[in-house]
UniProtKB/TrEMBL annotation:
<dbReference type="InterPro" id="IPR048254">
    <property type="entry name" value="CDP_ALCOHOL_P_TRANSF_CS"/>
</dbReference>
<feature type="transmembrane region" description="Helical">
    <location>
        <begin position="150"/>
        <end position="170"/>
    </location>
</feature>
<protein>
    <recommendedName>
        <fullName>Phosphatidylglycerophosphate synthase</fullName>
    </recommendedName>
</protein>
<keyword id="KW-0472">Membrane</keyword>
<dbReference type="Pfam" id="PF01066">
    <property type="entry name" value="CDP-OH_P_transf"/>
</dbReference>
<feature type="transmembrane region" description="Helical">
    <location>
        <begin position="176"/>
        <end position="195"/>
    </location>
</feature>
<feature type="transmembrane region" description="Helical">
    <location>
        <begin position="81"/>
        <end position="103"/>
    </location>
</feature>
<keyword id="KW-0808">Transferase</keyword>
<comment type="similarity">
    <text>Belongs to the CDP-alcohol phosphatidyltransferase class-I family.</text>
</comment>
<dbReference type="InterPro" id="IPR043130">
    <property type="entry name" value="CDP-OH_PTrfase_TM_dom"/>
</dbReference>
<dbReference type="GO" id="GO:0016020">
    <property type="term" value="C:membrane"/>
</dbReference>
<keyword id="KW-0812">Transmembrane</keyword>
<keyword id="KW-1133">Transmembrane helix</keyword>
<dbReference type="GO" id="GO:0016780">
    <property type="term" value="F:phosphotransferase activity, for other substituted phosphate groups"/>
</dbReference>
<feature type="transmembrane region" description="Helical">
    <location>
        <begin position="36"/>
        <end position="60"/>
    </location>
</feature>
<dbReference type="InterPro" id="IPR000462">
    <property type="entry name" value="CDP-OH_P_trans"/>
</dbReference>
<dbReference type="GO" id="GO:0008654">
    <property type="term" value="P:phospholipid biosynthetic process"/>
</dbReference>
Length: 206
């Protein structure tokens, strides 16, 4: 929801670190892949209930998620890189939830399943519209530098990070927190579905 407000700030902060990586011949795709594999380490850490360690891996993954875009903007933005980034992001999100499920199956399983289903809703509405929008040449006014047509919503990158931090800080309340975040994500999915459908119906008339 507040990603557009934070983007100019994070871009300024990440400009210098991105330049440092570029000078060492590290490209955006390498940052994306490195961040993904570091983020996956959160899964076993969560499963073994090392929540502070898991949070470190999660934050490193999110840092890499910002850095890959910063590196790409200073070198070359590519559709392949954007595709890789968004696919691995959704895989990472579900891996984190799976970690909490394994940590306490009896308490977390249903809430984790609901949240994974919710991520399917937010992800599918986002990606399906992006594909059709690209086909029809619909401008991405709010996020002009994104490789894919990015649809905003109540829960975006910042809100997801906050939720994951809360999960790790209060793991004993994961189920309650997951249901609250899932409800917010469903608002995002429904508004994206309606907005996307309405936009495409309008372009159908032309």
């Amino acid at each position: 929801m507040i990603d557009p407000l934070l983007t100019p700030v994070t871009r300024q902060l990440l400009h210098a670190p991105a330049g440092w990586l570029i000078r060492r011949n590290i490209n955006a795709d390498q940052v994306t892949l490195g961040g993904f594999f570091v983020g996956l380490l959160a899964l076993p850490a969560l499963a073994w209930e090392y929540y502070t360690l898991a949070l470190l891996f999660i934050l490193l993954n999110r840092l890499a998620d910002g850095l890959d875009g910063a590196v790409a903007r200073q070198t070359r933005l590519t559709d392949a890189g954007g595709y890789l980034d968004i696919v691995l992001d959704f895989m990472f999100y579900n891996a984190v939830v799976l970690g909490f499920l394994i940590a306490d199956v009896s308490q977390n399983a249903i809430a984790a399943g609901v949240l994974m289903l919710t991520f399917t809703g937010t992800g599918s509405t986002f990606l399906a519209f992006a594909g059709v929008a690209a086909k029809r040449g619909i401008d991405n006014v709010s996020y002009p530098n994104k490789s894919l047509h990015y649809m905003g919503g109540l829960t975006e990158g910042f809100e997801t990070i906050v939720a994951f931090i809360a999960f790790c800080v209060w793991p004993q309340h994961f189920a309650t927190l997951a249901y609250v975040f899932a409800a917010a994500c469903w608002i995002t999915a429904i508004t994206r579905l309606w907005s996307g459908y309405r936009t495409l119906k309008m372009t159908d008339k032309h």
